[in-house]
């Protein structure tokens, strides 16, 4: 009878551990799905912003009669494949340049196409801010699982790594040693 009790106890403990592993793994998977969804939303807004800034080049050229190349950095981006982090930084620079033209050439504010682009760019800014916050909230939950015991054991087994936040900072900055695995 004692062997039966020991076997039953071992089986109960093993099943409990397997259920915990499956539950924790599924938490990671759900967060990864939400991270991918947030990245897709950010990507869509960044592509929209790129298209708007790209359209503004022709409007600026035709309404300013400038001899200089307009937003050469954006023109170079057309053929490059960038991460969302890099694209966000480059588009932010492009947005600064767009605003510079708006200030340098006040007549642009009388152009309907230019003003529509300007309004759409402002709207895209609020969208990107909301999506960044959503992304960072999910990353916080994910990173808590990666760093806290006992879920960090599952993270190590399945090679789930700490993820960086989408905060608009230089992604080449090292994370502190506290957050390295």
What would you say this structure looks like, in words?
The protein has 181 residues and is mainly α. The protein has a single domain (2-159), classed as de novo design (two linked rop proteins), CATH 1.20.1440.20. The chain is built from 5 helices and no strands. Helix 1 (2-64) packs parallel to helix 3 (84-104) and helix 1 runs antiparallel to helix 4 (112-147). The radius of gyration is 25 Å and the shape is rod-shaped. It starts with a helix and ends in a 24-residue tail after the last helix. Residues 170-181 have low confidence and may be disordered.
CATH architecture: Up-down Bundle
**Count of helical stretches:** 5
Provide the CATH topology.
de novo design (two linked rop proteins)
The global form is: rod-shaped
Number of strands: 0
Helix and strand run: HHHHH
Short description:
Helices cover 73% and strands 0% of the residues. With 181 residues, the protein is an all-alpha fold.
Task: Please render the helix and strand layout as text.
Elements: H1 2-64, H2 72-77, H3 84-104, H4 112-147, H5 151-157
Helix pairs in contact: 1-3, 1-4
Keywords:
5 helices; single chain; mainly alpha; 73% helix; de novo design (two linked rop proteins); 181 residues; 0% strand
């Amino acid at each position: 009878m004692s062997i039966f009790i020991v076997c039953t106890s071992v089986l109960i403990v093993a099943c409990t551990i397997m259920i915990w592993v499956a539950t924790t793994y599924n938490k990671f998977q759900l967060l990864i799905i939400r991270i991918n969804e947030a990245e897709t939303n950010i990507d869509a807004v960044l592509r929209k912003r790129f298209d708007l800034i790209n359209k503004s080049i022709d409007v600026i050229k035709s309404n300013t009669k400038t001899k200089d190349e307009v937003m050469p950095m954006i023109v170079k981006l057309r053929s490059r494949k960038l991460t969302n982090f890099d694209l966000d930084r480059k588009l932010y620079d492009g947005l600064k340049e767009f605003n510079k033209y708006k200030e340098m050439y006040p007549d642009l504010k009388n152009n309907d196409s230019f003003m529509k682009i300007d309004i759409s760019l402002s709207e895209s800014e609020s969208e990107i801010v909301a999506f960044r916050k959503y992304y960072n909230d999910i990353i916080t939950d994910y990173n808590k699982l990666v760093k806290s015991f006992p879920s960090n054991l599952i993270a190590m087994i399945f090679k789930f790594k700490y993820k960086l936040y989408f905060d608009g900072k230089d992604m080449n900055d090292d994370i502190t040693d506290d957050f390295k695995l």
